[in-house]
Amino acid sequence: MWNAAKTIAVGVLAIMLSGCVSSVLSVDNKATQPIPAALLAEMSKKSMSPSAPILVRIFKQESELEIWKQDRSGRYALLKTYPMCRWSGKLGPKTTSGDRQAPEGFYHVSAGMLNPNSQYYLSFNLGYPNRLEAALGYSGDALMVHGACSSSGCYALTDEGVSEIYAVAREALRGGQGAFQVQAFPFRMTPQNMAKHRDDPNFAFWSDLKRGYDMFEVTRSQPKVSHCGRRYVFDTEFQGGEPRDPLAACPPVANEVHPAIASRAEADRLAMENLISTGTALSAHSYLDGGMHPSFRSLLERSGENALAKRTSLTSVPISRPSAALADPHSPRE
Q1: Is the dihedral angle over the CA atoms 198, 201, 204, 210 positive or is it negative?
Q2: pLDDT value, residue 238
Q3: Number of C-alpha atoms within 13 angstroms, CB side, residue 185?
Q4: Which DSSP letter does residue 75 get?
Q5: What is the DSSP secondary structure assignment for residue 236, as one 8-state letter?
Q6: What is the per-residue pLDDT across 316-330, written as a single tens digit (0 to 9) for each?
Q7: Which segments carry the region annotation Disordered (predicted)?
Q8: Per-residue pLDDT for 68 more than 90?
Q9: Are 183 and 232 in contact (CB under 8 A)?
Q10: Is 86 strand, coil or helix?
């Protein structure tokens, strides 16, 4: 009996170490909490309904998570920005189980991927690997956005922060949105950041992600995501329908790039090249292990790790934009 129990315990531990997984705990009412009144008031002010579709954007370098929501015009508008308490790994995509990398890419989260029984308060699964990543042979599972300010390949917020996000996502999915899109980026895809990281081995991949970033920035509409030619393809109609093999060459295209998107991409390219040619592009910092929003880093330095772990209130952690000196924060090893 003891040996059997020990074997089960070892198996459970092995699964938990493979990613930011959830454990089966007793369900309380944390997953059914209503959207906070202040956030409902903000929605009303911005002509949004609680049941309107949402979109999530994540930025590693800035350690921020954004919730966007459709307003009455049908376009997405920024509802709220949350400081991320921790993410692990470094800038770049996740490719292998155990690499501690938080994923980068485009994901879609359905109602079944919300986890009310999470070991880390509340969570939702990003759905890594997506179809492209699976075709490329990338491995890993249970990559989450969750609370508890602890990360091993996931994006961690405070418990209060993830509680708000969970409630907003739950109501959007109940309102009829089949799945909400999550766009996970290494950094805000500005000419300055692209120039700064121009020598990184992931630059081509990030240039690919930037196309989707630009489309959302210009149109404020959720980009349609396709996979072919070993890359992401956005807002594209193909002759003969959607590509079936993400690794095969892309089929002929039936539509043209939106002129405003093409104009933005060209302007950003020229700005990046100017930064490089004039020698004003910053150099990228090396990462030790992940990052943390400067607001939480300040709290950590002031009060220590234990205080950070206990602090769950967003209102007690002022959100400040990173300064140049804090643009690439290093989190302590967990």
Answers
A1: negative
A2: 96
A3: 26
A4: S
A5: -
A6: 343 444 333 333 332
A7: 311-334
A8: yes
A9: no
A10: strand
Q: Which distant-in-sequence residues (6+ apart) come within 8 Å of 272 by Cβ?
A: 191, 194, 195, 198, 281
Q: Which helix (H) or strand (E) holds 15?
A: helix 2-17
Which domains does the chain carry? Answer: 28-326 (2.40.440.10)
Does the CA dihedral 128-142-18-2 come out positive or negative? negative
β-pair partners for 76: 70
pLDDT above 80: residue 96: yes
Greatest CA span in the chain, whole angstroms? 71
pLDDT of 6 strictly over 60: no
Q: How far apart are CA 110 and CA 23, in angstroms?
A: 20
Sequence-ordered list of residues with C-beta below 8 angstroms from that of 54, at least 6 positions apart, any chain: 67, 68, 69, 70, 79, 168, 169, 172, 177, 180
User: Which one of 146, 197, 227, 293 is the catalytic residue?
Assistant: 146
Confidence of residue 28 (pLDDT cuts 50, 70, 90): low
132 - beta bridge partners? none
| Active-site annotation holds for 330 | no
Residue written as token pair 């995509």: 93
Which comes out higher in pLDDT, residue 299 or 84?
Answer: 84
Q: What is the mean pLDDT of residues 65-85?
A: 97
Q: How confident is the model at residue 1 (pLDDT cuts 50, 70, 90)?
A: very low
| Annotated catalytic residue, options 154, 197, 227, 293 | 154
Q: Which amino acid would we find at residue 214? A: D
Q: What radius of gyration do the chain's Cα atoms show?
A: 20
Active site (annotated) includes residue 146: yes
Distances (CA, A) of 210 to 139, 214, 249, 271: 23, 6, 20, 15
